[in-house]
Amino acid sequence: MKIVIQRLNGLWHLVVGSYRIRTPFLETQDRALVVTYARRAYPGAKIFQRD
After folding, report:
1. At 41, is the secondary structure helix, strand, or coil?
2. What's the rounded Cα separation, in Å, for the pair 24 and 51?
3. Which pLDDT score is estimated for 50?
4. pLDDT tier at 23 (50, 70, 90 boundaries)?
5. How buried is 12 (Cβ within 10 angstroms: 0-12 exposed, 13-18 middle, 19+ buried)?
């Protein structure tokens, strides 16, 4: 499974397949928080970042 981390409208989002999941983290917060969040939610997934 591939997960893309993307900034959109001031928040971080996870894009899983065709679904865009809003995270509780603001765009100004560290990306490492979002990566940790994604790893807990989707263990074993490959995580990419798109700007």
Report:
1. helix
2. 18
3. 79
4. very high
5. buried
